[in-house]
């Protein structure tokens, strides 16, 4: 993890982040290979989490590993609410998608106020479909079927659920 580039130097120098040295008497450090990272002064590079990527030499910290499309990387390299370091890319839940390789969160599938659904790990908005008891209109919007209505519990910009009309009500 250290090198000495000039014979007159008294001390060895720690390899920069993204580089390593696994030999003694090293005169320089090597770049970490693709899909690995290293913080500083190490003799090895650590593999990026599964479903992530970083180019050769760019892995200077865990967060440099970017989560693939379909995987949430918004907390990668940070501590979560339980004060535990997040070290993995998390597959997007059903009803969400992420289209780029980057460390951002998965986006909700919603279309003009209607909550849509998708399979886990969806990578594009086109994977999002109308939820049960709704139908897609010719204009591409989802509307609640006859006898059903869409509801939300909070002041959200999308409907959370579609339920049948109660006795005494109709649609």
Describe the structure.
This protein has no helices and 19 strands. The protein has 171 residues and is an all-beta fold. It has a 3-stranded antiparallel beta sheet, with no helix packed on it. A two-stranded antiparallel ribbon has the order 1-2. A two-stranded antiparallel ribbon has the order 3-4. A hairpin with a 2-residue loop joins β13 (110-111) and β14. The radius of gyration is 25 Å and the shape is rod-shaped. The mean pLDDT is 84.
Offer a concise description of the structure.
The protein has 171 residues and is mainly β. It has no helices and 19 strands. It has strands at residues 2-3, 13-14, 19-20, 30-31, 36-37, 46-47, 52-53, 66-67, 71-72, 90-91, 96-97, 107-108, 110-111, 114-117, 129-130, 134-136, 142-144, 148-151, 161-164.
The count of strands amounts to 19
Which sheet architecture does the biggest sheet show?
Answer: 3 strands, antiparallel
Instruction: Calculate Rg over CA atoms.
Output: 25 Å
Uncertain regions: pLDDT < 50 for 5+ in a row?
Answer: none
Order of helices and strands: EEEEEEEEEEEEEEEEEEE
β-sheet strand percentage:
25-35%
Cα end-to-end separation: 70 Å
Q: Quick check: average pLDDT?
A: 84
Structural class: mainly beta
Number of helices: 0
Helix content: under 10%
Global geometry = rod-shaped
If strands are numbered along the chain, what order do they take across the biggest sheet? 13-14-15
